[in-house]
Amino acid sequence: MSLLGAAEIRQLADKLDIRPTKKLGQNFVIDPNTIRKIISKANLTASDVVVEIGPGLGSLTLGLFEEVDKVIAVEIDARLADQLAETVETHTEAKTLEVVNDDALRVTELDNPTALVANLPYNISVPVLLHFLETFPSIQKGLVLVQSEVAKRLVAKEGDELYGIPSLKLRWWANARLAGMVSRQIFWPVPNVDSELVYFEKAENQGNRERVFELVDKSFATRRKSLAASLKESFSKPVSEALEGSGISPTARPEQLSLSDFQILARLEK
Predict the structure, then answer these.
(1) What is the pLDDT of residues 187-199, one digit of tens each?
(2) What are the structural domain ranges in the chain?
(3) Counting Cβ atoms within 10 Å, is residue 225 exposed (0-12), middle (13-18) or buried (19+)?
């Protein structure tokens, strides 16, 4: 199968009168070797149904079809959504493409994807990733290309400088790790930030997710304060008593707590 190179991507963009915009976070991958490198790290099998968010002109989509038979592509731009089917038909045989022309953050019904692979728009990468993991429990694994700092936030552990809300919320859904850097030069247009891959596999967590996330949000909303100050309105008993009863120091900072710590707190009465 032939993948899209820089010249063909620019031709398609000219045909559609597409000018990549920062507003939509559009940076198209123009190097076939990088596409295959990305796909190789996604741990896909032929039976996987892959959901791709923001397929753009289809360079990653075609790469996915070298490994799987079905891709569900979610694309907000109607011009790109319409062109994608034609591009896939021209370059592949006996493959199934389903195109959903909608805002990824509003999508709630898909045909049971088992994997998520995407070059996520920088401006909405974390909300989109968390939305899909919450909305589609059939997703078992995934690989996302995001801004390097965002990647490090997603996989950070307690005590790390970049540890915070994205780290904890992704950890609820999945075990994640960094999977490699990607050069700026393989994008068009060339972004002014570095990009990195994050691979994840689904995790099973017990408890009240909404309550856990509520406590995480409140704790990190004032992360410079102690937990006793941040969560003083969150429990029926005095917050210091609640924290100490859970084995957590009232003077601790939120970045010192693991997901398990927040799960313990979530089991206490409000």
Answers:
(1) 988 888 899 999 9
(2) 6-202, 209-266
(3) middle
What is the rounded distance in angstroms from the CA atom of residue 120 to the CA atom of residue 124?
8
Tell me the CA distances in angstroms from 203 to 140, 171, 231, 258, 268, one per residue in order.
Answer: 9, 8, 27, 15, 23
Give the span between the Cα atoms of 87 and 89, in whole angstroms: 5
Give me the CATH topology for the region 209-266.
Helicase, Ruva Protein; domain 3 (1.10.8)
The Cα–Cα gap between 178 and 25 comes to 21
Cβ(53)–Cβ(155) below 8 Å: no
Using 50, 70 and 90 to split pLDDT, how confident is the model at 206? confident
Q: What is the DSSP string of 112-124?
A: --SEEEEE--GGG
pLDDT at 25 over 70: no
β-strand pairing of 195-202 with 174-182: antiparallel
- Of 162, 102, 110, 170, give the one whose Cα is nearest residue 142: 170
Token pair, residue 97, equals: 């493409």
Q: Which superfamily is assigned to 6-202 in CATH?
A: Vaccinia Virus protein VP39 (3.40.50.150)
Stated pTM of the model? 0.93
In tens, the pLDDT along 222-270 reads: 877 888 888 988 888 888 888 888 888 988 899 999 999 999 999 887 7
pLDDT digits (tens, 9 = 90+) for 28-62: 899 999 999 999 999 999 999 999 999 999 999 99
